Amino acid sequence: MSPSATSNGDSNDVNGHQSDHLSNGTTVTTSTKSNGVNGHTQKLEFTTFCNIINNERCCTSKTRHNINPATTEPNAEVPVSTREDVDKAVAAARAAFKPWANTPVEQRGEKLRAFAEAIESYKDDFARLLTLEQGKPLAQSYQEISMANTWLRAFSVMKLPEDIIEDNEERQVINRFTPLGVAAGIVPWNYPILLAAGKIAPALYTGNTMIIKPSPYTPYCDLKLAELGAQIFPPGVLQALSGEEDLGPMLTEHPDIDKIAFTGSSATGKKVMASAASTLKRVTLELGGNDPAIICDDVDIDAIIPKLTILSFLCCSQICMMIKRLYVHSSIYPRFLSAFTAQTRTLPVGPGNNPETFIGPVQNSMQYAKVHDLYTQIDKQGWTPALGGRVPDADAAGKGYFFEPTIIDNPPADSRIVTEEPFGPILPVLKWDDEDAVIAAANDSKMGLGASVWSNDLERATRMAKRLEAGSV
Q1: CA–CA gap between residue 432 and residue 324 (Å, rounded)
Q2: What is the pTM for the complete model shown?
Q3: Contact 71/400 with Cβ under 8 angstroms?
Q4: pLDDT on residue 15
Q5: DSSP 290-358
Q6: SS in 3 state form for 402-449?
Q7: Which has more pLDDT, 324 or 22?
Q8: 350 in the Ramachandran plot: left (φ > 0), alpha (ψ -120 to 50) or beta?
Q9: Fewer CB within a 10 Å sphere, N or C end of the chain?
Q10: Residue 30: band (very low, low, confident or very high) from pLDDT cuts 50, 70, 90
């Protein structure tokens, strides 16, 4: 399987930052009982990072580190897991599965709510760490933590109904939800806390055990989530493993893992599915998007511009369900484009620890190179920037992975900026006149994650929305 199977992208480049504590590369794991053993809790620290296996902090002989994308300076060392570490974690998860599955669902929900409360108590530490490793502004890090806790609490009270399909003197047929077993969650680098919580909550609530594999670009918060979880959940229920490009395939191919939940690129998702097929694992894939937003001629431009700006440039546009294509009715196009560029121009770019920043850096060198290549196409392809468009200097990446927000004015429909998912702060705005034509243009994509229609006429918006081929409209 390709190395890309472990992250939200087509490569697991970790910038070559790696240290090998043993010359022969052998993994020697040392363990310390986690804080939650026997009901004892201890304050979590956020300076050292270990795998969490069976509620123990497990260090590995070989480590690596990632970098702060705002400065390219190194962050702390993290483990490089081996197949032995994977086998230990899977064995612990398997041993924990039956007792956890037999725990009443109400008690499992209580544990999830306790987990949310524990995360909330460390929100300042998690927010600072998230900004350090992901690059997003501190305010957006707090928002991510809040959203993660909302998910944890929401799943903790969901109903698991038993529906009686047939009931007569001869038989009773019941449809019910039963846990699968051991799940592995492969988490991307754009929202490491939120998307880990989005895998942990439903898995644990329904009686499964979970091994979290964070992206090699953002391992820090997820390791601490699992360490904090060790204070709340029984051993083996929630674990986390950090590693390199070979860790993902170890999990997707493992015969004792029953379910893979993956968030990342479409290209990587195909490889995850192919790998999981060898053991007939169940797979949930949440992949890339190239979401269109259709702006009708009856909108209140001043009212929607601030919303559209946020939905286009939040998290440096590194969100799968972010607006990636804006289709604006030609009758309002000049006024809309002027207002949209003016609003976007007010968004400060800079390090996430600057309280004024709205657009932080692109998260990693791999994505920086992809976005940089798109910016170089502006002049080559003759695209017209309504805002921005400057290609960063050759040595700019050494000072942080920053781009100025860029809006491309009505590029050709078949241009890369329209057909590809940029995953960076560059956005095409296109004109439309005919409803059938704009629906066809919006649907002209292999991605169908999300879409939106903006109109003051609800009947019109609903009619158009029903024709959009996307999972969430």
Answers
A1: 16
A2: 0.90
A3: yes
A4: 35
A5: -EEEEE-TTS-HHHHHHHHHHHHHGGGG--TTSEEEEEEETTTHHHHHHHHHHHHHTS-BS-TTSTT-S
A6: CCCCEEEECCCCCCHHHHCCCCCCEEEEEEECCHHHHHHHHHCCCCCC
A7: 324
A8: left
A9: C
A10: very low
